[in-house]
Amino acid sequence: MGARFPLYADPADGRWTSTGRGSWTGGFWAGLLWLRARQTGLDAHRSAAADATARLAPWAGADTATRGLIVWYGTALAVGDEAADALRERAATSALAAWDATLGLIPWGAALGGPRLRARADGVPGLVPLLASAGAEGQAAAAAHLHRHLELCLPRAGDRRPRPAWRWDEASDWSAEPDPAPGWTRGEAWLLLAVADAFVHARNPSSRTDRLTEAAELLLERCEFVTGPLVPPADADRPGGPLDTSAAAIAAVALLKLALVPGAGWVPACVARAEAVLHRLTHAHLTRPGGPRPPGMLLDGCYDAPNGTAVRHELVWGDFFLALGLTALLGRVDLRRV
């Protein structure tokens, strides 16, 4: 990659499409490099991870809720790296400053294009633990940001699945956006991960653990995280369409985090399901040595099904969550800290 960040790789030959600044996925590349450095202990690998993390610095103050995905996952595994700690602190402070009391959340933002005053399921994961790292005020903001998204996104009467995207304007308040539509399984996995993060990272999630429990149970049931396909379709309403292994990998990590909640009745099912998902991904969707493609590609990830973009590809965030889940199963990383 040199000084660029990988985004998705062609399933035919493994060639990566990359970005110069990392977009919303840059933190997953840095996170993968930190996982490698932890595994090998080599100074060269630690240096490479630190360099990738340093290049995420412009995102710390960017107007986007995805700074949670970018900075949290790009720094959380950087144990003992003072520069990464400082970057995470700057990002948390900046995110807290972007709090909008009228909306009750940190807006989606304009850094990635489109209207700024939106709320999306992928604007919650990463941002919950990032905010929670910023002291008592950050803890309160993390809880409020999550709960407002749950109020908007969770299924209501007549809804089968979560509604992942909303827009706000002063005249009409919140209104659901058509894209991404309900049934976006990666958005559902992002929501489950955010709820799991609130359990394991927030010391006092605004005294609403009952609401978190209800949300987790509703998502587990409605989105079929423990009963549906091990690797879901990218669109739940198109079971014959492209799969999304990245949604499965995110869900597996979320399930492992939920399994850390003391006394929760879902623990055995979450552990068993996470292990089954990770087993399926590694045995049915990874390329093997000896073929025309690089070994170890996690195929069948779907970046953007409606627009036909990278619908059967290797995705850098899919790689990251698969690696994180496997590392956690091996006892080499504590999911309470990531």
Structure overview:
- The protein contains eleven helices and six strands.
- The model has no long low-confidence stretch (mean pLDDT about 95).
- Helix content is about 45%, strand content about 5%.
- The longest helix is centred in the middle third of the chain and has 19 residues, at about 135-155.
- The two termini are about 25 Å apart.
- Helix 6 (about 135-155) packs antiparallel against helix 7 (about 185-200), helix 7 runs parallel beside helix 9 (about 245-260) and helix 9 (about 245-260) packs antiparallel against helix 10 (about 265-285).
- The protein has about 350 residues and is mostly helical.
- Strand 1 (about 5-10) and strand 2 (about 15-20) form a beta hairpin.
How many individual helices?
11
The outline comes out as globular
- Our estimate of the beta-strand percent is 5-15%
Strand line-up in the sheet with most strands:
2-1-6
What is the overall pLDDT average?
Answer: 95
- Structural class by secondary-structure content: mainly alpha
Distance between the termini: 25 Å
- SSE run: EEHHHHEHHEEHHHHEH
